[in-house]
Design goal:
This protein is α/β, with parallel strands linked by helices. It has a single domain, classed as ATP synthase, F1 complex, gamma subunit (Pyruvate Kinase, Chain: A, domain 1, 3-Layer(aba) Sandwich). The chain has five helices and five strands, in the order αβαβαβαββα. The chain has a five-stranded mixed β-sheet, with helices on both faces. It is elongated and about 115 Å long.
Length: 298
């Protein structure tokens, strides 16, 4: 019994140490979630309005631009998976990777060749462990992305889209990230950035309607070429901010649950230790009584 009591006391001590770590990580995530959420909320209107402006220009322009037409000279497509640098965030990264695998499977069935780009050490480790080639990776800023990193990612993907087919050019750009809805609701989302798939906030005219008169300076193609880098950069930066807020929210919720589980384990081990101590005392009393009876009978 003494051995069991010592084991339970050691488990209580180790669980208390883990509880302190979980609690500290929960407080750190809680202190940073507010700023991350505000950044994501403030960046969304700019990305949304830029997408609408680009959609309007692409809808009413008469030039044939790669932004709106499918590219047929290559079957390669680029996929950017936005994951976390660290764990302890529940199923945050797992849900993104699961959605990425579904996208890869769907594109492969369509006869396309996915090229994977990853942000975050967890996603990079996932594909590296499975010996899947990664065309580009960015790590170290999953919970606090910077504008410079977003622009670097956007320029890399845009260069892949504009590259010739024989130099590794891609025909589509997809991004898989986690959209932040609230502190308790974050869901992975797949977004096709190029070719432009959804015209947000712009009504496409019918055959009987008259198109509005637009004048483009210096030209329609030049306007689209100028808006394209801004569109890619804003979309990727907004997605990174959404993913950062989602990661911190998932980590706070996971660490809160882990802290509660640690409390429950401590209570369980304390009860077991007390039971072992009572059994030890009972055994010692029984041995004393038995010895006294033996002496009295002799």
């Amino acid at each position: 019994m003494a051995g069991k009591q010592r084991v339970y006391r050691q488990r209580i001590k180790s669980t208390q140490a883990l509880k302190k770590i979980f609690r500290a990580m929960e407080l750190i995530a809680a202190s940073r979630i507010g700023k991350a959420r505000d950044r994501a909320v403030h960046a969304a209107p700019y990305a949304r309005m830029l997408t609408r402006a680009l959609s309007a220009v692409a809808t009413h322009a008469t030039v044939d631009h790669p932004l709106t037409r499918p590219r047929t000279d290559t079957n390669r497509v680029a996929i950017l998976a936005v994951t976390a640098d660290r764990g302890m965030a529940g199923a945050y990264t797992a849900s993104v990777l699961r959605e990425t695998e579904r996208l890869i499977e769907r594109l492969t069935e369509e006869g396309k060749q996915p090229q994977i780009y990853v942000t975050g050490r967890r996603g990079l480790g996932y594909f590296t462990f499975r010996q899947r080639p990664v065309a580009g990776s960015w790590v170290g800023e999953s919970d606090a992305p910077t504008v410079e990193t977003a622009h670097e990612i956007a320029d890399t993907l845009l260069a892949a889209f504009n590259a010739p087919a024989d130099e590794g050019g891609v025909s589509e750009l997809h991004i898989v990230y986690t959209r932040f809805s609230s502190m308790v609701s974050q869901a992975p989302r797949v977004l096709r950035m190029i070719p432009l798939e959804v015209v947000e906030g712009v009504e496409v005219p019918t055959a009987d309607e008259v198109l509005p008169l637009y004048e483009f300076e210096p030209s329609e193609e030049a306007v689209l070429d100028g808006l394209l880098p801004l569109y890619i950069r804003s979309r990727i930066y907004a997605s990174l901010l959404q993913a950062a807020a989602s990661e911190l929210a998932a980590r706070q919720r996971a660490m809160h649950t882990a802290t509660e589980n640690a409390d429950e384990l401590i209570r369980t081990y304390t009860r077991l230790a007390n039971t072992a101590r009572q059994a030890e005392i009972t055994q010692e009393i029984s041995e004393i009584v038995s010895g006294a009876d033996a002496l009295a009978s002799s």
